[in-house]
Write a structure and sequence with these properties.
The complex is a heterotrimer of chains A (467), B (103) and C (313). By secondary structure, chain A is α+β, with helices and mostly antiparallel strands. Chain A contains 16 helices and 19 strands. Chain A has helices spanning 3-13, 23-27, 50-63, 115-123, 141-147, 154-157, 192-196, 230-242, 255-264, 289-302, 314-325, 327-334, 352-366, 392-411, 427-437, 440-452; strands at residues 19-20, 43-45, 67-70, 87-90, 97-101, 106-110, 127-128, 164-170, 176-180, 205-212, 214-215, 219-227, 249-254, 276-284, 306-311, 339-342, 345-346, 369-375, 380-387. The chains are: A alpha+beta (467), B mainly alpha (103), C alpha/beta (313). Chains in contact: A-B, B-C.
Amino acid sequence: MDFEAFRAEVKRIMDSSKIIESRGELMLYSYDASPAEPAIPRMVIQPETTNEVSEVIKLANKYLIPIVPSSGRTSLHGGPIPYNGAVVLDLMRMNKILEVNLEDSYVHVEVGVRLDELNAELARYGYFFPPDPASSAAATVGGSLANGAGGMRGAKYGTVKDWVLGAEVVLPTGEPVFMGCRTLKCRAGYDLLSLVIGSEGTLGVITNAYLKIWPLPEAIVRLRAYFRDVVDAARAVGMVKAKGFRPLIVEFLDRGTMEAVSGYVKEFTYPRDSEAMLIIDLDGPPEAMKRYIDSMVNILKGAGGYGIEWTSDKDEMDRIYMARRAAYPALLRLFSGMRVMPEDISVPPSRLPEAVKGIGSIASKYGLKIVTWGHVGDGNLHPNIIYNPNDQSSVSKLYSVSKELGLMAINLGGTVSSEHGIGVLKKDLLTSELEVKGIAQLRLMKAIKRVFDPNNILNPGKVIDID
Amino acid sequence: MILINDQVKLLVEKYSLARCARCNFCESVCPTYAATRRRVHGPRGRIWLIIYLSQGIDVNSDEYDGLLSCLNCRACNQVCPAGIEIAEAIHDAKVLLIRSALK
Amino acid sequence: MEDWLRGLRSIMLSSLNYNRLPIPVERGVCSEWARGMGIPESGDTVIYTSCLYQLVPYINSFTGLMEKIPPSALGPLVSRLSHLVTSFARVALKPPRSEVDRVNGIVRAIATLLIRNGVKFAYMPDEPYSGALLYELGFEDDFKEYFSSVVLNYFRSRGIKNVITIDPHTHHILTVVAPRFFGDLGLRVVNYMELIKSVDRARVSRVVIHDSCLYSRYLGMRDVYRVLLEKAGVEHVEDPYVTGVSTSMCCGGPVESINPSLSNKVARLRIDALSKLSNNVVVACPICYANLSRNSGGRVKVLDLAEVLTGAQ
């Protein structure tokens, strides 16, 4: 590693306004939104073009300098933290929406554009990009692609990997390539694009992408139901799907979430005897809505749902959704001095009842509060662990709880990370999951990393360790 | 550069800046961040610069400018899930920085 | 930067000391608008312009000057020679007559609206500036000193009971900031918009509103001017990403004396966003008016609310 030589060459090719070296500002790149240990980068570079990214990475590869690509820095697993004196490549200045093409159904966009900004623009054309992580106000296209983001609409629309046609990717050796296609169908050899999506910046730096877009739903109706038993709520989800419905969202809130929200939002009330709440959005043609609603109400009642309400009025929809929207702010404000770690497991929807019970017993075993909500249409649960960052034993319990939640998900046939990623915090859990699914895959992953990145310069130590 | 750590510490406590979950919603509505795309010009960056100041870490002139060039427009307050009064905290930090600069 | 802060402070303080205005111009510019309007010069209910609208053309010249010589370069010089700079500025700040007429017209439009709505009020040719700039930039100690010794004394010594503000900065100072420092000021403060019930039919039919941060996010008044525009028959285009409570971005004005190039850049981005919705931008704040019109690049027409409500625009 020859940082001084790297630094000198970077300064030759990059304008000084794109280089950050002062300590205070570097420290602003030392963290993400996770509890992972912070680390200060040696330098931050703010490229504006693919060519600049390529030139910087060539130099990094020449002088063996670790490079961490990042943009919104909203990660929940330590992925963008620059350990071991890494240099951060801040992609936020690559923030142009290059083309909206309705005929070919794509948007060509640079990676520093935030998802909400992208959808605001697409809405002008009556279109949208469906993946919708809760952080969409702050999360960028680049971060979402690199981390395989999902969101509430996952049950219907999948995650980002289902919505990328092609992308310009700078390889860890500095060569820019275009992976995938601009067309919907694409069989050009091995699917390298799919390897890069979700690789958390370890296999390449995505600089712009062609994303599939979809017409906005014609009409949406929102339903809400309470359940006396979480098992009933989970069963209701299964029945909805078995009847052939593919709701836009199915949000589950446990009693702890409802309690927290009612402590924070005065207007929010819920039946004392309810243990769970479901919020379901159905979309479709307006003429079909009445039929859908009748059928849904029957299903929900049949599963033990009560207090069922439905509406297509925008304000009323907002009112129902408030319980979910206010959940995270409620946790941040109610537990003073504490922090929230949003966990991210998935189980097959049929195993949701067991998972919800399992979360309860893990919480009581360690004496940490866990408040759970989730996108249960696809079996994705977010158990939010409340811990005290200033209490060493609370922090170590946090990691134990996180580990047990992951192991439970594996046992139920699920996965340790649905849409947040692995980063540094879940490397061990990834190994546990691969042990069940065939540990030979870890060998393949390491080999793939070495092929892409022979000098291990791109976000080293994230997702997997190669030695 | 300046020794105002103790007063900044009080400020960090007054506004419970440690509640910042670093979600970065604030940066997306910040006009100065939009103009420069430098994190010293964004609310999350400014909040953390204040926290660093309270820990005795000096700020250089760019970071100093970052704090002083906050518009106090309060857009960030509106979107902060932790309910931090970001604009007010930065205003109070400006007052301390200016007081110390004028000494 | 510290040099510049010292310099900026001495310019402001020596100017306030000289004419009770934040920048060194002749006092006459503050009261020119009232000529021929027949508004009495004493009474217990007064319109308090804080001279903010009237100063806009001078602020524009001042900022134009500053963008050419950045604060970092100007700082050391100004901190040592602030008195010289002040006298120089008095001579150098000569804005175009058309700009001066325009802002005087806005103040006259506000007064006209009040008169037509049956509000009886006096005006004060020698009214002092509120000190808002000192407070907003962070010179809080100087603000407290200035406000209590000059502004508060002024109102008290003249037995003024009711104050009508015409801009958000002064309104915020009188209703929120000063009471926090000094308790009850013994003044009843209302904003002119709250006194307007009937308005004229506007000439423009479709506009986009640029919200003042203070009216919108500090004072909870963003609906007041929306309702007034509707009464004047004006459609205001809304967009959740341009005119929402959290997304309506600032004009950049508050930092024009700290980082002028940043301030102008923020304004130009704001113009970009607003121009997608309408070519007519309505503002209700002199600082927004100054910063946006200076940076509009001819792409949009920046109109003050009062100009629209009197049918002048």
